[in-house]
Design a protein that fits this description.
Length: 195
């Protein structure tokens, strides 16, 4: 599987580029979180790790066309994995995990691997990396500090209670505390500046 993962990683990097709020750096962190959670939850890594590498491959297409990246990404992943001669059963499970990983999706993950991918993707939106990504995202969309703070309240602070796995919940507790502390410090600085 190591050679297969190298090929999949290269494919994802070619599509996503190296950085950005949803670039390859985000994908690599999600991959690492999937490995960490997957080992503890006894997941099928042959499904989980390819899904982690491919979960956001349709992000650029979503920007261009408006197609939801989770659905389009599942389709793109299936097409790519067929070209690698991956067995159909694995392709179906990998695509299902990609299709259900998104926070705002109506579809919920069912398999353990899909739940772990969903948890890992949400965990990268929390903690110090989540804070950095939130401000990067705001800048990418032409926003500022107020836009980033709004994103904390609309999404990030809700993530702790939306974890599926025991391991994901434990990591989320720690990362949630970082978010709360940051917002408190930001508020204190803004209030002291104004007084």
């Amino acid at each position: 599987m190591d050679n297969e993962l190298l090929i999949i990683r290269s494919h994802a990097r070619d599509i996503l580029g190296t950085s950005g709020s949803h670039g390859m750096d985000h994908t690599e962190r999600v991959f690492s979180l999937c490995r960490y959670i997957g080992e503890r939850e006894q997941a099928d890594m042959g499904i989980l790790l390819p899904a982690a590498l491919l979960h956001d491959i349709a992000r650029p297409r979503e920007k261009e066309t408006g197609l939801p990246h989770e659905a389009e990404g599942a389709r793109m992943a299936e097409e790519f994995l067929i070209s690698l001669h991956v067995e159909k059963r694995r392709i179906t499970k990998i695509a299902q995990a990609i299709r259900t990983h998104r926070f705002s999706s109506d579809e919920r993950p069912e398999s353990l691997e899909a739940k772990i991918l969903s948890d890992a993707d949400k965990l990268d939106a929390m903690g110090a990396h989540g804070i950095a990504r939130t401000f990067l995202r705001a800048g990418e969309h032409g926003g500022g500090i107020d836009d980033a703070v709004a994103h904390f309240h609309e999404k990030l602070l809700l993530l702790k209670d939306r974890m599926y796995t025991t391991t994901g919940r434990a990591v989320a507790e720690e990362r949630h505390a970082v978010l709360v502390s940051f917002l408190e410090n930001l508020k204190n600085e803004q209030e002291s500046r104004c007084s």
